[in-house]
Write a structure and sequence with these properties.
391 residues, alpha/beta, 7-stranded mixed β-sheet, 12 helices, globular
């Protein structure tokens, strides 16, 4: 007789079953067989020489994807949210004035995080689908004198890709760091960190990179590093303290890397392979492919009588398309129907855009016209069979 009072759970005595789904929502994306195979390789130690070489490869891949020469370039162990926290925890101290551009959920999240660490949070706000002119940004910078300005490049909740040119210069004129979230845009829409004067840039593995969630590229300029390494207080998170992570990733010039935490080894294998695939394709070709696929999708959506949520073409995020919820339909029913009958995931809105939009993401491995046609066929079927009330 066993002395244990809790028996093995019956569910864990059955084989793992995972359905095949087409992930055409705002992320994660489907993973290519090549990346899947890389993540299935046998484990090695997180500080083995071979692992450190893989980390060095990842650093070079991120520098290419970001178009930066920043030495302080690493992958955070965690999601894009973790990278957002790393950026804010390290560059902002209690009492610092920060300026957050809010035109969707990610500006809201950045504001919440900055507030939790005791910053004086100032915001400029637009409704979902809106963007900020450089004049509006400059006026807010002059008014609030922040140490850091946060902007989302690819606002996945509303489908807006925000213009970046000239903003870095405006920030630097006010002795302000420029922090950009490119989680939903990296690899799908042009962003060139050094040329655009971006001081802190982060992304995530599961969107255009089409790698499993759990690793998040991030890079810091020399100006950002000066702020980080001259803090009066320690960052609130030990795990995300860049003074430790810089050594773990070989960015501090010291001959030996010390133990800080055990990184997601399999996730880093996958991230390395995803960055290799992007390097082989080339950034410019990737940008072009996402634009062409998005344009093909947009034409198909309009032929179905659907209305694109972002009216100005130049502001449409190529990776994630937002559609105004068609009048008379329940967006939840459309999403559920497409999942049930086509094994396709699309999504509703998020945060401020909840109830306003449907979101379709064709990113990285999923970004091709065949997949666009597949989701168009599923939408056509859903509009035919889902209940439509009289408006």
């Amino acid at each position: 007789m066993s002395s244990l009072s809790i028996p093995p759970p019956a569910c864990l005595l059955r084989p793992l079953e995972v359905p095949h789904r087409y992930l055409f929502g705002p992320g994660p994306s489907n993973v290519s067989p090549r990346v899947q195979a890389s993540g299935a390789r046998q484990m090695i130690g997180h500080l083995h020489r071979e692992m450190l070489e893989i980390m060095d490869d990842i650093k070079k891949g991120i520098q290419y994807a970001f178009q930066t020469q920043n030495n302080m370039t690493i992958a955070i162990s965690g999601s894009g949210h973790t990278a957002m926290e790393c950026a804010l925890f390290n560059t902002v101290e209690p009492g610092d004035s920060v300026l957050i551009a809010v035109n969707g959920i990610w500006g809201e999240r950045a504001s919440e995080i900055a507030d939790r660490i005791g910053a004086r949070v100032n915001t400029i706000v637009k409704p979902p689908g809106g963007y900020f002119t450089n004049d509006e940004i400059e006026q807010a910078l002059c008014e609030h004198k922040p140490v850091l300005f946060f902007l989302t490049h690819g606002e996945s909740s509303s489908g807006v890709v925000h213009p970046l040119d000239g903003i870095g210069e405006l920030c630097h004129n006010q002795n302000c760091l420029f922090l950009v979230d490119s989680v939903a845009s990296l690899g799908g829409s042009p962003i060139v960190m050094d040329k655009q004067g971006i001081d802190v840039l982060y992304a995530a593995s599961q969107k255009v990179l089409s790698s499993p969630p759990g690793t998040a590229p991030i890079s810091f300029s020399e100006g950002a590093c000066k702020k980080i390494f001259n803090r009066k207080t320690k960052p609130v998170s030990f795990l995300l303290d860049m003074s430790w992570l810089a050594n773990y990733w070989g960015c501090d010039g010291k001959p030996a890397r010390m133990y800080h935490h055990t990184g997601p080894i399999s996730g880093l294998f996958s991230l390395r392979e995803s960055l290799a695939a992007l390097s082989e394709m080339g950034l410019e070709k990737s940008w072009t492919q996402h634009n062409r696929t998005a344009e093909h999708l947009h034409k198909g959506l309009e032929s179905l009588g659907l209305k694109l949520f972002v009216q100005e073409k130049s502001l449409r995020l190529p990776t994630i398309t937002t559609i105004a919820v068609p009048p008379g339909y329940d967006w939840r029913e459309i999403i559920a129907y497409i999942m049930k009958h086509h094994d396709i995931e699309i999504s509703g809105g998020l945060g401020p855009s909840s109830g306003m939009v449907l979101r379709i993401g064709l990113m990285g491995y999923n970004c091709n016209q065949a997949n666009a046609d597949m989701v168009l066929m599923a939408l056509r079927d859903a509009l035919k069979h889902c209940h439509k009330s009289k408006v």
